[in-house]
């Protein structure tokens, strides 16, 4: 990878590349997506079946659109039993971490008769989208379903496209069953998002849609936002390793490559105070590239969006890391935890040389659905909080309201909202 | 208002009206908004000044775009000092409630060297939009700024359009100062949203934009979602009162009218088990309509979107209330708190006959920015959580990773991600 000294210009250049990997204009696809959504919203199943035939080349009916128990059994028969074991072990950790995100409803009371609070209620139905295509990611199925189930959502409904044969990838089905999906529909693309957002004769309308997908799925999610809630729109994956001279270059190289292999748009950046480390990491990368199966993808992503930035000081390295706001950040430095206190923007922070990023993808327990493309400035990892909503609770006694009723009336009148003032005043009018 | 018996048909009809008050198609406005955003994003201040001149008829420069200390002083001189007092009293309650929403970062540890956690970090910059126009709502300024300040956001930046004279409404300015806005810019419309989302020479780029606005502002917020975070898109206001025969019809009528006065699209619905109450509420409404200053607006909103639904049972009434998922819900029934436990969907729940809705708008402390148009199914009141983001924290020791490294490698290989497997395996390879 290119090694560059960090200065204002190189920082801006690298950041620009890092943050602007996804194209921003989708006029043509947007029009297609709008049409599909309007059609499914108005014609329901009929439109859904027709788009599925057109795009997925599968003929669905009311009877075959949903995965049956029989099909789930077949899926178990088709996958390596040791994968089921690993999924179960991983689920223990994922559930345990997400259980700790649960929030309680709370109240506060004042003796004069004031009770205020916040009630936390799970959503009734959540939709989880799982992409089809060649690559199947059962780990992603777990990460999207578990927070909804832990939140207490009544019904978690998965949508994933089937093949021409009407079958769904067996490892995806097994992961869905293990994670606790309540229903699985064999639908994909913008038509699946529309079906979940508006409901059809076969597919129930949900309250929130989460999960990754291609550009049509992403645009459809953005289009239905407001009719339902959605998670953040996922861009290509990225890692930023923050390392000093104490880091093991072989490990750092392996970790950078683990993200670069995702796709050609993925980004891997090393920010280091040590030029010597930078050079050794580059050597290790060359070594690994001889043997790794996805070396073509890796080479392209490293060429396009990979970089090593060398800084004069630790403070500069940390500032650069915050500026990038990466999806995954590894800190392999002396006093890693102290450095972490200075990190404001990152989806997940991996500390120390045995906390390799794939540990988080598969096993540790925190969610691997993380904000990309610098959105860690304002978005958070997918969590139990994504599947609950809150209601404020307000109770005042006569005594408590009487004490302040003139203040409220004045405030309302100042905003010319006289019926607001009246609704308070009427409670204290003389009979 | 029309009194109808609740049955499947009337429920569906009333709900349809209630939820579909906002038009859904904005093709023309969308095109305008897109153009403005692209222009401000590429030309910065120049475009921002030119749109401000076009739409707000005010000539801004780098020197005059921001409200000065002097202008804030003038604003204080222009408002009734007793309003400042009320604002301060209200702020005590709003801050106190929002302080209770603050979440701690947390960790869990296992002795073999596993540390997992969730770090909570405030966003750096938040943008608060405040509409201009005839009506000024200082209460809304407080409700949008306080959660950001309590969250610990470094800089809260307010945008509000100025008049032709380059001045901002004084009560809005005073509210901004009291609530703790760090900077106030005299900009409005889609161009203000674009400036906050992308930054210009004068206006800093923010991480999140909140606050109500007209259709151009709402469409602009939706368009920049992903570049920044936004709050939910606000629709017209609404109230649903759930009442039995114990309710005071005069109070119920006054409370329904307090929402109906907001605008002609506002909705006020009473769901009650008592036909006698329904009739008395209607009589009281007629009485109030003789005297209230905004009676023209109220009549139109009641005609268009007001209704009284009479149900046979309390259970049916509660189910209907949940189906509507109203922004504001009042429960004026025997055992109001018990009824509240059955409410799943509502922005804010007001309990008992002295908890009139305007108490929440102005004074009690919980936020008055609430999900509208049935989105309480999945959206929450504006809160401190809107202005923080989370990062997962993952640390494993060598010992802890060694115990499970083969599991991770297997999972990664099953997903054909061999560089992921390699980044774990490399740490345990034989030297």
Automatic annotation (TrEMBL), chains A, B:
Its EC number is 1.1.1.23. SUPFAM superfamilies: ALDH-like (SSF53720). Binds 1 zinc ion per subunit. Gene3D superfamilies: 1.20.5.1300, Nitrogenase molybdenum iron protein domain. InterPro entries: Ald_DH/histidinol_DH (IPR016161), Histidinol_DH_CS (IPR001692), Histidinol_DH_monofunct (IPR022695), Hstdl_DH (IPR012131). The keyword Amino-acid biosynthesis applies. The active site is at residues 327-328. GO terms for molecular function: histidinol dehydrogenase activity; NAD binding; zinc ion binding. Zn(2+) binds at residues 259, 262, 361, 420. NAD(+) binds at residues 129, 191, 214. Pathway: Amino-acid biosynthesis; L-histidine biosynthesis; L-histidine from 5-phospho-alpha-D-ribose 1-diphosphate: step 9/9. Its cofactor is Zn(2+). GO terms for biological process: L-histidine biosynthetic process. It catalyses: L-histidinol + 2 NAD(+) + H2O = L-histidine + 2 NADH + 3 H(+). GO terms for cellular component: cytosol. Keywords: Amino-acid biosynthesis, Histidine biosynthesis, Metal-binding, NAD, Oxidoreductase, Zinc. Catalyzes the sequential NAD-dependent oxidations of L-histidinol to L-histidinaldehyde and then to L-histidine. Belongs to the histidinol dehydrogenase family. PANTHER family: HISTIDINE BIOSYNTHESIS TRIFUNCTIONAL PROTEIN, HISTIDINOL DEHYDROGENASE HDH. HAMAP family: HisD. This is Histidinol dehydrogenase. It comes from Bilifractor porci. The lineage of its organism: Bacteria, Bacillati, Bacillota, Clostridia, Lachnospirales. The gene is hisD.
């Amino acid at each position: 990878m290119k090694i560059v000294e960090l200065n204002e210009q190189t920082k801006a250049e690298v950041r620009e590349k890092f943050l602007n990997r996804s194209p921003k204009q989708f006029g043509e696809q947007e029009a297609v997506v709008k049409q599909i959504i309007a059609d499914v919203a108005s014609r329901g199943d009929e439109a859904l079946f027709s788009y599925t035939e057109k795009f997925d080349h599968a003929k669905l009916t009311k009877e075959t659109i949903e995965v049956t128990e029989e099909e789930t059994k077949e899926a178990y028969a088709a996958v390596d039993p040791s994968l089921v074991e690993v999924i179960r072990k991983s689920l223990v950790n994922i559930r345990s971490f997400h259980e700790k995100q649960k929030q309680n409803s709370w109240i506060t009371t004042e003796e004069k008769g004031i009770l205020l609070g916040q009630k936390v209620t799970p959503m009734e139905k959540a939709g989880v989208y799982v992409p089809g295509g060649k690559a199947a990611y059962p780990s992603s199925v777990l990460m999207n379903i578990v927070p909804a189930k832990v939140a207490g959502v009544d019904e978690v409904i998965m949508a994933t496209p089937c093949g021409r044969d009407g079958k769904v990838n067996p490892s995806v089905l097994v992961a869905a069953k293990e994670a606790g999906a309540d229903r699985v529909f064999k639908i994909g693309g913008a038509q699946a998002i529309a079906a979940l957002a508006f409901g059809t004769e076969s597919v129930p309308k949900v309250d929130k849609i989460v999960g990754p997908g291609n550009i049509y799925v992403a645009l459809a999610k953005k289009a239905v936002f407001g009719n339902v809630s959605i998670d953040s729109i996922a861009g290509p994956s990225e890692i930023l390793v923050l390392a000093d001279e104490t880091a093991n270059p072989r490990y750092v190289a392996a970790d950078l490559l683990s993200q670069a292999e995702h796709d050609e748009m993925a980004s891997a950046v090393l920010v280091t105070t040590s030029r010597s480390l930078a050079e050794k990491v580059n050597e290790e990368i060359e070594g690994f590239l001889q043997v790794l199966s996805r070396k073509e993808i890796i080479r392209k992503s490293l060429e396009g969006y990979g970089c090593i930035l060398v800084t004069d000081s630790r403070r500069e390295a940390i500032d650069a890391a915050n500026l990038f706001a990466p999806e995954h950040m590894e800190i392999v430095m002396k006093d890693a935890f102290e450095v972490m206190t200075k990190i404001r923007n990152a989806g997940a922070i991996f500390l120390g040389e045995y906390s390799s990023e794939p540990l988080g993808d598969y096993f540790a327990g925190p969610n691997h659905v993380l904000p990309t493309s610098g959105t860690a400035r304002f978005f958070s990892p997918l969590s139990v909080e994504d599947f609950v909503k809150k209601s404020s609770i307000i109770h005042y006694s006569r005594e408590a309201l009487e004490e302040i009723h003139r203040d409220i009336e004045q405030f309302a009148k100042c905003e010319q909202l006289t019926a607001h003032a009246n609704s308070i005043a009427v409670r204290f009018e003389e009979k």
